């Protein structure tokens, strides 16, 4: 349903370091850079970061990235922890969503709820 998603960050270098680390285990990388605007993706840029243009507190967003398997979810979690992210939920099965929903949730530098999820069984 979504073609691409863009979010704004208060500290672009901190956010780039975070997303470089946590998206690598999911197979994504920086693909395009236009000044402070950066597009990440696997085959094409579909997740974008840009500097915030407004003052005041940011509104939390929830972003879920697809992981190829449960090992990638665990690697995403480990990379986030190494990057100093707050862990909201360690990797686990969430049967309330469906029997094979395996996800991990962390906060990015701007307070967004960032998830890696695999829908396949172990």
From TrEMBL:
SUPFAM superfamilies in alphabetical order: Glyoxalase/Bleomycin resistance protein/Dihydroxybiphenyl dioxygenase
Keyword hit for Hydrolase: no
Tagged with keyword Cell cycle: no
Start and end residues of each VOC domain: 1-119
Pfam families: Glyoxalase
Keywords recorded for this protein, A-Z: Lyase
Matches recorded under Gene3D superfamilies: 2,3-Dihydroxybiphenyl 1,2-Dioxygenase, domain 1
Recorded GO MF terms: lyase activity
PANTHER family: GLYOXALASE FAMILY PROTEIN (AFU_ORTHOLOGUE AFUA_5G14830)
Protein's name in the database: Predicted lactoylglutathione lyase
Organism from which the protein derives: Micromonospora matsumotoense
